[in-house]
Amino acid sequence: MKLFDLTGRVAVVTGGNGGIGLGMAQGLAAAGAVIVVAARDIAKSEAAVTRFGPESSFIATDVAKEESCRAMAATVLERYGRLDILVNNSGMSIRKPAQDYTPSEWRAVLEVNLNGAFYCAQAAYPAMKQAGHGKIINIGSMFSIFGASYAAPYAVSKGGLVQLTKSLAAAWAADNIQVNAVLPGWIDTQLTRDARREVAGLNERILARTPAGRWGTPEDLAGIAVFLASSGSDFVTGAAIPVDGGFSCAG
Hints:
Helix content is 44%, strand content 15%. With 251 residues, it is an alpha/beta fold.
């Protein structure tokens, strides 16, 4: 359907070499977009881009560093002449009791998850403004809604990401740039596999709470990525959309 056709569009996916980012990148590529994976792991990223078509590429990026984000956006423009879609997916977590975090651990999580999304959005903004359109998709979490007793800075960063989404949506609507957030539920990724090993009974509690009766897969995020990146969502901005198998609406 033409409404969701992304042919000719260039999409930057931070952390697009695995997990949710990879699932979203595959969806965008299937809809016709050229994918740029912006991440730190060279080998993993170069392997990932082989799935997206010959025009797709990897740009080494540390989202926690503003200058790296700006350099990435400049390289995208030099290489492709445009930057249409930004998926802020890069994230990290440190799990421990709230009282035990060091200031450096707290800052590290917020720097990647929240500040990194802002740095990348700022870096992408000039190209989108000049083109007269743009799509920014921020990847939040169920912890944008709920607290996390064992991952306080992660929950804080993801809650802040929803407010960043609303703020940028309001600020840039006049530039025809739509900014939305996706709130994945419990998705089977390396991050959540680590959580299942570290948090006793987590798997059983998630399955019992999720009406769909299963963990999500990265591929479950492909459709929402295409929708929010396409002209089909031109009047959708500032939204935070759960993709969670019903987890957030269950009692």
